[in-house]
Amino acid sequence: MGKLDGKVAFITGVARGQGRAEALALAAEGADIIGIDICGPVATNVAEASTHADLENTALAVKELGRTMVAAEADVRDYAGLKAALDEGVRQLGRLDIVVANAGMWNYGLTETITEEMWDVVQDVNLKGVWHTAKAAIPILKAQGSGGAMVFTTSSMATIGAPNMSPYCAAKHGVSGLVKTIAMELAPHNVRVNSVAPTTVNTKLIHNQPTYALFAPDLAADELTLDNVEPRFATIPLLDVAWVEPEDIAGAVVYLASDDARYVTGLDLRVDAGQILN
């Protein structure tokens, strides 16, 4: 018996990284998955693009756990496309219980050098995309009348700030406020709304040259290697670790989605290795 037997979870940004880890963790507890990913580049994003093959690999891994995944390519910035993918998944799987708004990206620059495009794309993916996810899912959860759980990805940057990251910090602060507001709106429907706030996570979002350069501006391009930058990342958390793993975030999502957290709502659950205390 799993903690989520008979449940269906909708996850954005599911092709790899945290999204894939969340899909597998929820499936391991008995949930079927509706998963979307853009499977392509996002302008100004520092990480390499996810692919259709990544999405297929997530679906295959869910299947190997004995669960079903309805996968679709969709962009969280496109409300109509997101809603169509969610509606089709609910049609196939019969219901919706858990919503995980995970899709995200970032770019860097001092506030006065950030372009309009850099600002807008981060807000559209990281904040508006979360609103789109909630907007599409809420009517389904209300109509079912059986409660549910929504989990949004924020960040340690939803509590503190960081130089060169004003678009990202602003968006994640916004998601934190959105969590609290929707938690109040959906409490009468027994739908709990929380967020997970990671520190740096071991995914492609940090393992790329622009991010390495941000943390080690004194190093030449050919010196920007994992071995050289890992000690820089290790200065961020309070605990003796450079970053946490996607599975650490997925474990928090499972907790918030399950009955173990049946009286938890409006919470920003930090999985930050003590970063904001450091």
Automatic annotation (TrEMBL):
Gene3D superfamilies, sorted: NAD(P)-binding Rossmann-like Domain
Pfam families listed in its UniProt record: adh_short_C2 (PF13561)
Nucleotide-binding as UniProt keyword: no
PROSITE patterns the record matches: ADH_SHORT
GO molecular function, one term: oxidoreductase activity
Keyword list, A-Z: NAD, Oxidoreductase
InterPro entries attached to this UniProt entry: NAD(P)-bd_dom_sf, Sc_DH/Rdtase_CS, SDR_fam, SDR_subfam_1
NCBIfam families for this protein: PRK12826.1-3, SDR_subfam_1
Family the UniProt entry places it in: Belongs to the short-chain dehydrogenases/reductases (SDR) family.
Protein name: Mycofactocin-coupled SDR family oxidoreductase
Species this protein is from: Gordonia asplenii
Lineage, highest ranks first: Bacteria, Bacillati, Actinomycetota, Actinomycetes, Mycobacteriales
